[in-house]
Design goal:
globular, 3 domains, 10-stranded mixed beta sheet, about 425 residues, mainly beta, 6-stranded mixed barrel, 34 strands, Cathepsin D, subunit A, domain 1, Pdz3 Domain
């Protein structure tokens, strides 16, 4: 098949829909044939490991990636993703890519599959690692809003083609990733660490855990290990009759997937156990079948384990040997937090501390206080928004129930001052 050169250049930034980070992608046609990848390798053949820093925003790992000698692009590192996806470019970005043909992508959400370009023959470079003939899928429609949601430049997502080649060590405390050569890597057991088997099924990693429902019923579950999901835990209530949605749960907009909105319920369960590690009262999302029905029951899975739990460990993910090592870090005992305000924010110009309200849940504290979509955030508790990151602001919105917030927004050129108390959504 003749290769064509595709120059991907955008002179005007566009906006795309918000995403939680939980992605499961299916490609019409022969997935295995389309995603055969050339190996990523250390540039220095004598090197056995390389380390580099990452950004950690809204529980998502963001790493630098160069494609075909481009400037640094920024991709979310996603174990739940079996392909690499270019989701957006911004003002002044340019990128030269090869492509072969148009394909159809299917992911979470209620909408229809979308069109994308399947590109191969590309060079990827990540710190001291390089790979030729790499595959990437270019989404032609504006379906995500990663940059605006996270308040920083994000161009896409990368997953399996990095994890399959290396032992990947993630230090959430230092915000550092170390890639180890599998042939020379040796497990160094440290105090309180546990090494567990993982199941690699169609390029995706799974782990077994035990969830304890609110009636004290214990359920053994198979969970996707998903660094690209900001939640703690998703469970499919249809995968096992013993998985029960908590009585004190609430309807929730869980985000947007590749094919539209993801809705469902959120609530707390008694606990989750992973080997000897136990977390009490985690917040669990139960997506409805119309939002994610195609992925329910896939590979015998019962749900997914997201970064709100994974970030509590120093993690070593070893696809070549089907292992994962977990060691508790300083975040291990932190309480599970949730946005208690009912408002969601975006950054219309990523990288600039300018935030607007994108969504207000009906009858939430923010709604009853008079806040509206489109309001420009000026301050929270006398702290000026332009001096804060989007993570800083969400720290306020995820505060303890009953905490009083003073919020100032700008609407139609006028300042609007309001007060509300953060709500105890469920016990």
């Amino acid at each position: 098949m003749r290769l064509h050169k595709y120059i991907y250049k955008i002179f005007k930034a566009g906006f795309i829909l918000i995403v939680v980070g939980h992605l499961n992608i299916f490609i019409a046609g022969n997935l295995r044939a389309q995603t055969t990848l050339n190996s990523l390798q250390f540039i220095d053949p004598k090197q056995n490991e390389v380390s580099f820093p990452f950004k950690f925003i809204n529980n998502l790992i963001i790493i630098p990636l160069e494609i075909n000698n481009s400037d640094s692009l920024f991709f979310i590192l996603d174990t739940g993703l079996n392909i690499s996806i270019l989701t957006e470019l911004s003002l002044g970005d340019s990128l030269s890519l090869n492509y072969t043909k148009q394909v159809t992508l299917k992911g979470l959400g209620k909408g229809n599959p979308i069109k994308a370009l399947h590109s191969f023959g590309n060079e990827f470079r990540i710190s001291g690692v390089r790979g030729y003939y790499q595959h990437i899928y270019i989404i032609l429609q504006n379906v995500f809003n990663l940059s605006s949601m996270l308040g920083t430049r994000v161009h896409g997502l990368i997953g399996y083609n990095l994890f399959k080649e290396f032992v990947v060590e993630i230090d959430y405390e230092k915000k550092m990733i170390t890639l180890h050569r599998p042939e020379t890597y040796k497990i160094h057991h440290k105090r309180k660490s546990k090494t567990l088997p993982i199941i690699l099924d169609n390029t995706k990693p799974y782990i077994y855990a035990t969830v304890v429902m609110n009636d004290n019923t214990e359920v053994k579950v198979k969970l996707l290990i998903d660094t690209g999901a900001s939640h703690a835990l998703w469970l499919d209530k249809n995968s096992d009759p013993k998985i029960k949605v908590p009585e004190k749960s609430q309807k929730a907009y869980l985000g947007a997937g590749l094919n539209g909105e993801i809705n469902g319920l959120i609530g707390r369960i008694n606990s989750i156990r992973i080997s000897d590690f136990e977390f009490e009262r985690p917040i669990v999302a139960f997506p409805d079948s119309s939002s994610a029905g195609f992925s329910f029951g896939l590979n015998g899975r019962n749900g997914s384990l997201g970064s709100e739990i994974l970030r509590r460990f120093h993690i070593i993910i070893d696809y070549p040997h089907n292992l994962i090592t977990l060691r508790p870090n300083k975040y291990y005992k932190q309480p599970f937090k949730i946005n208690r305000s009912g408002i969601e924010l975006i950054s219309p110009v990523p990288g600039i501390p300018y935030y607007t309200i994108s969504m207000v849940k009906k009858n939430s504290p923010g709604d009853l206080a008079g806040l509206k979509p489109g309001d420009v955030l000026y301050s929270v508790n006398h702290n000026i928004a332009k001096a804060m990151s989007i993570n800083d602001i969400y720290e306020y919105l995820q505060g303890e129930p009953g905490r009083k917030l003073r919020v100032v927004v700008i609407r139609n050129g006028l300042y609007f001052v309001t007060y509300f108390y953060l709500e105890n959504l469920f016990n």
